[in-house]
Amino acid sequence: MLRLAGLRASAGLAAAARAPAAPRPPGLRLRLLCAATMERPAAGEINSHECESVLSKDKVSGELEASTVDSLTDMPFATVDIQDDCEITDVPQTNSKRSKENEGIKHEHRKKRKKPSKDYQPNYFLSVPIINKKITAGIKVLQNTILQQDKRLAKAMVGDGSFHITLLVMQLLNEDEVNTGTDALLELKPFIEEILQGRHLTLPFQGVDTFRSQVGFVKLADGDHVNTLTEIAETAQRIFQEKGILAGESRSFKPHLTFMKLSKAPVLRKQGVKKIEPELYEQFINHRFGEEILYRVDLCSMLKKKQSNGYYHCEASIVVGEKDRGEPEDAELVRLSKRLVENAVLKAVQQYLEETQNKKQLGEGNSTKAEEANQNGKGSDNNRK
Questions:
Q1: Confidence of residue 355 (pLDDT cuts 50, 70, 90)
Q2: Strand ranges inside the chain, DSSP E
Q3: Which of 25, 142, 241, 352 stands 20 to 30 A from 43 (CA)?
Q4: pLDDT tens digits for range 183-201
């Protein structure tokens, strides 16, 4: 009976050997060998104790492999196709495909972001002009103080009439795009009015700072006005972008009033001037320069020739705030004045015509009386004869 069972087992093993099968791991071969040996102890080359040891080690190894895969799939890179020298391929292939697709999508997004940034060269901007004489005079004093310490920086100073706050930069490549930008600026006006809600937007300037020691600027003091101005800038960016205009910057909006830039004078670097030293403006760090009221926003060109007053070439402007609402009243006064003048002129002309007409009538009346007198005189003479 035992011999018959052994023959059947041998036949089964032979059939399994003839059948095509995937390569078996060494542990599986060892388990089969142990099973056969334990079934036929006399023919075995490994005793039962060694087999039990091998099986227990194989079990522990399997548990370690399973726990390793579980821990890897909990990591952020769980969707990556995990395959190493240990042949750990239990991660589903669909995850690896999805990972490659995601990587492809991310790569496309990166390419799309890089392409505009490579070709994007702003040449226009929205400007809030600074015209308060107290502020501009304070900046001139600041510039002169710096020049007294280093005259080489004269070419780095921003000229008179150019002081402003930049709300938004953009790229306008032709006349059509400039016209589109003008339309966008006009559309921006009611949104600004809605944000202001009939109030003045006062912009107080206090203190001096630099951007990476390369650009010197007067700081806008902290307060709610910064949030309001930021909201206006963000609204402007949205409106211009909806018009298809490349507008905005990658960095966040930080309103400031520039008074000097080393990039205006590249020769300074050759002369050893590589940064704006804090000692140059230290006495103005907390200086109060004054307040500006937002009343106008201009669409300006960075490249076209500046105006005679030093301000940038302006394509279009909008007037906002209470001053704007006062303008119709002023215009109405002008119209009334014109009407008064016209009425006065009309009255004067009419009076002149009436007087002229009266004079004519008087003249005609006198001539008639003279003729009658002459006729009467002739009649009396005839009577005497």
A1: confident
A2: 124-129, 164-171, 202-211, 215-220, 246-247, 256-261, 288-293, 296-301, 314-319
A3: 25
A4: 999 999 999 999 999 999 9
